[in-house]
Amino acid sequence: MPEKIDNNSVGLVTPEKFHCSEPISLSCGEVLPEFDIVYECYGTLNSNKSNALLICHALSGDHHVAGYHTWEDEKPGWWDRFIGPGKVFDTDRFFIVCCNNLGGCSGSTGPTTTNPINGNRYGPDFPLVTVSDWVESQARLADHLGIEAWLAVVGGSLGGMQAMQWSVDQPDRIKNAIVIAAAPKLTAQNIAFNEVARQAILTDPNFFEGRYYEHSVQPDRGLRLARMLGHITYLSDDSMAKKFGRDLRQGKINFDYGVEFEIERYLRYQGDQFVGRFDANSYLLITKVLDYYDPEGTEKCSLAEVFSRAKCDFLVVSFSTDWRFSPARSKKIIKALHDNGLNVSYGEVKSSQGHDSFLMTIPQYIEIIRSYMDKLAASL
Amino acid sequence: MNTPTDTATTLALRSDLQIIAEWIQPGNHILDLGCGDGSLMGYLARTKSVTGYGIEIEDHYIPQCIRNGVNVLQMDLDRGLTEFSDNSFDQVILSMALQTMHYPHLLMKEMLRVGREGIITFPNFGHWKVRWYLAGRGRMPVSEALPNYWYNTPNIHLCTLQDFEELCRQHNFQIQERRTLNHHHETGLGLRLLPNLLGEIVLYRFTRLPDNIPR
To answer: Which of A214, B6, B97, B154 is the least crowded, having the fewest Cβ atoms under 10 Å away?
Structure first.
């Protein structure tokens, strides 16, 4: 049983699989002849299909955003605190969809799935995809579900980039974009962190050029290091100090390399948890999706020109201590939006929890999203 | 910035609303600095079909604006309007917030950079009641319009009508129109003759010199 089931949980949910037999042309030039997208839905689609929300996951997320797969699960979906009856993304009012993106490792077509052409796992041969490719595949899922336009596409971090890309790639199929803790492109510092994470995996002796499945091993050490590094960047100096400080597990130093400080325990725990559930090739690929995201650079024009295609309304939220995707990065998005006269509201939430804030139920953050969603619900 | 206890703002909003609305052309693109709960923008959107944005720094106003259907951007005006391009608005409004700015003159420059016209309203420190209070008691005035004490007031840069006009002269801000309201928020002959003495709230419409975007 889960430790605690909250009263407003969506309860037990079952993932579904959409098989798309139409080929998809990817930004890199390659074509996937067919693909699967695993997704979950919560709530009920109304009769005119106007209440659908698409939640986009970030680097390490998946389609399981709320509820439980079995009552044996220890934890609910990754954004369960936000999704359910009466919650900010209220399943009594909205029909909510979240899918595992192409290249992921939770059931959608990606490095761990079988290439229909040769019957082998894709592994490192899975083509590098982009945020635009994800938007295209999500649009196919929308077709499959009979959703002409999303009431809102919502995402934090890399999820926010998908929401932005929806607004320019599919301007007629999105009414609102909710862009949280995101950026119009990564900075050199962001890419640097991703590169160290990748190097940790690529140089793991068990990586075997990405063909580790054939050797029945996993580059666990590399993936673990990558995740530990990631977690440092998701927290702020303040939140680490508050959560762990210099607390020692045994109250004294032991003059060895064991786990002494609480922060060491935390990082090792996060690394270990991740190794069991995530695939190294998917991790490599998704860090590249992040690095490549740069609509200005891709289209060789200003961000304002990119957003000139957008028609939807925007809500943008950033967090004061998020140094990975800082408020200054969100302000670049805002500027491009109001340069086009688009409807946009922006909240800068005071939080000590760094980039991870977007997953947390911070009262001001919740109130901003709730006020926006109430407005959307009233428009239905 | 505006605080919930700042009754000056709420009192004034109702009365200077009409005058500001008179100065706005239907369909104008507006920036409202220190927009509070978005009442003014909401009013202008309903009555004048304006588009645009409110800027507010206080947390609690952000969801209120969103609920009121007003585009609100949470930003600190003391850091300027760098997020906005030159000439991107018809009018930029600063209603009852000039006196809370760290650098009022720099913000006024910014207003005329991003908009073709500025509209400013503020409580006049030259009003006779303020003078009477200071002269009689020898202490910083506290009133309905200025309800805070010197140490906890958000109003850090109070000025008189004459001070404001002197600042405009120094910076080549072209005053197009001035209106004054007395403490009953009415206008009249006395106010026209002795605006700095009888005006409790003053309203200005001002522009830059032609082809001269302030930097």
So the answer is: A214
